[in-house]
Structures are given as structure tokens and as C-alpha cells.
Write a structure and sequence with these properties.
Blueprint (H helix, E strand, L loop, with lengths): L15 H5 L2 H10 L2 E4 L4 E4 L2 H9 L4 E2 L3 H6 L4 H6 L1 H6 L11 H10 L4 H5 L2 H13 L6 E3 H6 L1 H11 L6 H12 L8 H28 L5 H7 L9 H32 L1 H9 L4 H11 L5 E6 L3 E3 L2 E3 L4 E5 H4 L34 H18 L4 E2 L5 E2 L8 E3 L1 E3 L1
Parallel strand pairs: 2-8
Antiparallel strand pairs: 1-2, 3-5, 4-12, 5-8, 6-7, 9-12, 10-11
């Protein structure tokens, strides 16, 4: 494989400007060498929509199984041995498997996350949104990321899962420390060991809750996961814990990003903001465009299952493929004028929630939360605008996350 490339996205030395706006970098890579091997990422970087969509849907050649083991094989032997619990968790569960294991796990989850049931949550979501806005209305401003976008999905997912809302700060700390493995690889050992410590704390927490549910079943997701049964098939403990961790983290991380970055881009595009205010029925297409324009999840990894010739490149069995979701969703071959926010955009087949058999189960929930949150903010705080203090971005190559988003109204 060639290591020569006209432009490198070295995740160890990415400039701060990349985290504020990665899309110029993606355009340059796509224009010069859209599928290339990166020594820094130890992976093929796929930046075109068609290539990303192909890899996401073709699970037979681009596997979701063994991603963590493949990623961690470059670690020193002693570190990898010490990190066995972390590797095992992220090698287990729905998003880390292919059929037939994936089919089995998805069946067990399918009855828990039914889109029509998610829609019934809308009045409850509305009441939480109104309560959060009530708390800040008289203040004339807030940090929209911390005071609103973070609180809404963490409250909802905690209530759905059946865990105390008061523990959401613990969830956030756990998630932040686990997700820190997606920042640069510097101080790798310390960050990965810290992530594992947090994961083990999280697993112990849920073991206790599952033991409680065994004696005291409730109407919540934890009970339904524990009781999930498909013709006598059930989750084993490893699958149950890995699934729970995934649901909790995915249940709010992406929605925080959708709401906070979505509001940022609407306020930075006032003509689109005014169009939405004038016609609130555009909120559905607005949410889809915000998901495309600045995708909460920026990449998904796959392991090449067989030697493949693609776009004139030879991908070898065992290679890692980094499907750059953010780059795919700004590909001009798929989306005309991709750097323009267009809330009326038609045929918006973005891949923000993945594609194929791994399409995100939580997508319907994120859409409803984004719909209610953004439409209510604009209705109740019609003069909302960016404060003089600039927003601060999290330096993370996996998630597009704002640490702060000061606004006034």
C-alpha cells in the first residue's frame, strides 16, 4: 500500500482549526486523494460519499467485528494485556458484530426501540424542554451547550433507562473519560487506562441495577433489556453490559451535538433561521440538514474482510477503513453546494446515522428531541443570538461536540 499522500490528517497533530471546522481539510483530501492509506491513522481514509456508503452497507467485505482488536493491535503488548476489559467491551454487542450475531442482537433490541413508541414520548420531551427554558428565561442568556443541550438528552435517556436522573453527572464523566480515547494518541496509556477504569465503574453500576430489576421489575429499558427473550434467546452478561453502555452513551452524546451545533449553525445563518421561524413546518427538513451539515458522529470504523480493489487502490484483508461521515456528508458529488446550509434541501440522503444494517436504533429518538428542542427554543426565545464570547469545541476526532455555546436573548 502506498504511504505517499498529498495531504495528511495526522490525528496526533491536528491543528485547533480542524476541530472548529474540519470540512476544508476533508475537501482537500477528497480532491487530491479521496481514498488513501494513512500511517498516522493506521487506516484507509474514505472521504467520498459513494465509498463511505458502500463500506457501511457491505458488511461482508467491511466488517464491524474486531474493530477494537484491530485498532489496539499496534499497542505495546503490556498495555494491550492491561486493557483486555476495555477491548472486550468494545468487541461485544450490536455495533461491534456482523450477521448472524448482529441479526440476533438486533432482534432482541427491536421491540424496545420501536419508532412509533418513541413518537409517544414527544409530550414528555416537550415538558422537559419547557422546564429547561423556564429556568433561564429571566437570565437573559445561558450556555446553550451546558444549560440546555446537555441536560435534555441526559434527562430523557436516564428516565428511559430507569436510572436516577441525579446520576447524570456521573454518566457524563464516565462518557467523557471513555470518549477521550478518540482524541489524539498522545499520552495513550494514561488515557486508555483511565477510560477502562471509568468503563469498569459504569459496568459495576449497571450490574447493581440489573440485580435490583431481577427482584423489582419496572417499566423501563433496563427491565426490558434484562427480560428480552426471542424464542428462548437472551443477552449474556457481556452483551447486556456492552449494550447498556452503548445505549446510554449513544443516547445522549449525539443528541447534545445535534442540538448545540444545530443552533450554532442556524444562528450563523440568519436567513435560514428566519426562514424556519416564518415556517415552523420546516423543522423536519431542518433537522435532517443539520445532521448532514455537521454530523454528530464524524467517522465509523470497519475492518476489511478480504482483499478488495476499490477506486484503483488495493485494500488488504485486515486493513482498517475509517469511513469519514463528515466528509461524505459534504461531498459535492452527492450534495449540491454542500457547504451551504439549506433547510429546504431535497433528497437529503445523509449518512449521519450510518447506513445499512447498522443504521442507528436511536435515530428516531434523536430526531424527535432535536425537533422539539430547536423549534421550542426559537418559539419561546425568538431573539436568541450568539453572545460575544465565542463557542469552544471539544478536540475529538469521533464526535463533533461543543464544550460551550454562550447565547443571549
Amino acid at each position: 500500500m502506498s504511504t505517499t499522500q498529498p495531504f495528511a490528517l495526522d490525528q496526533e497533530v491536528l491543528p485547533h482549526e480542524y476541530y472548529e471546522n474540519p470540512y476544508p481539510y476533508f475537501h482537500e483530501v477528497r480532491a487530491n486523494d479521496p481514498m488513501h492509506w494513512s500511517e498516522q491513522w493506521d487506516a484507509w481514509l474514505l472521504t467520498r460519499y459513494d465509498d463511505v456508503a458502500l463500506a457501511l452497507r457491505d458488511w461482508e467485505r467491511f466488517s464491524s467485528s474486531g474493530k477494537s482488536r484491530r485498532t489496539m493491535r499496534a499497542f505495546p503488548r503490556e498495555l494491550r494485556q492491561a486493557l483486555e476489559p476495555l477491548e472486550e467491551n468494545f468487541s461485544t454487542g450490536l455495533i461491534n458484530s456482523d450477521p448472524p450475531a448482529h441479526t440476533r442482537l438486533r432482534k432482541l433490541l427491536a421491540r424496545i426501540f420501536v419508532p412509533r413508541e418513541i413518537k409517544k414520548l414527544r409530550p414528555h420531551i416537550q415538558s422537559i424542554v419547557d422546564g429547561l427554558i423556564d429556568a433561564v428565561t429571566d437570565k437573559g442568556g445561558m450556555d446553550l451547550a451546558q444549560d440546555f443541550a446537555y441536560l435534555l438528552p441526559t434527562t430523557i435517556i436516564a428516565q428511559m433507562m430507569g436510572v436516577p436522573v441525579k446520576d447524570r453527572e456521573r454518566f457524563n464523566a464516565w462518557a467523557d473519560n471513555i470518549n477521550a480515547i478518540h482524541t489524539s494518541r498522545r499520552a495513550m496509556a494514561d488515557r486508555f487506562m483511565n477510560a477502562q477504569d471509568n468503563l469498569l465503574e459504569m459496568q459495576d453500576y449497571f450490574r447493581r441495577l440489573y440485580a435490583q430489576r431481577k427482584d423489582d421489575p419496572r417499566d423501563d429499558v433496563l427491565t426490558r433489556l434484562a427480560e428480552a427473550d426471542e424464542d428462548g434467546d437472551r443477552f449474556d452478561e457481556g452483551e447486556l453490559l456492552a449494550t447498556t453502555v452503548t445505549l446510554l452513551m449513544a443516547g445522549y452524546e449525539t443528541t447534545i451535538s445535534l442540538i448545540s451545533t444545530g443552533m450554532l449553525w442556524l444562528m450563523r445563518n440568519p436567513e435560514q433561521l428566519e426562514m424556519l421561524k416564518a415556517d415552523p413546518s420546516l423543522i423536519t427538513s431542518t433537522v435532517e440538514e443539520l445532521l448532514r451539515y455537521d454530523s454528530p458522529v464524524q467517522r465509523q470504523l470497519r475492518v476489511v474482510s478480504e482483499d478488495i480493489e476499490l477506486d484503483g487502490k488495493r485494500l488488504k484483508k485486515g486493513d482498517l477503513a475509517a469511513c469519514m461521515i463528515g466528509a461524505a456528508n459534504r461531498d459535492p458529488a452527492q450534495f449540491p453546494d454542500p457547504d451551504r446550509l439549506d433547510i429546504r434541501r431535497e433528497d437529503n440522503k445523509h449518512v449521519a446515522f450510518g447506513y445499512g444494517i447498522h443504521f442507528c436504533l436511536g435515530g428516531p429518538l434523536a430526531r424527535v428531541e432535536g425537533d422539539v428542542a430547536i423549534s421550542t427554543l426559537l418559539r419561546r426565545l425568538p431573539n436568541i443570538r450568539l453572545a460575544d464570547e465565542p463557542p469552544v469545541w471539544e478536540e475529538n476526532v469521533l464526535l463533533r461536540t461543543l464544550q460551550t455555546l454562550p447565547v443571549v436573548f
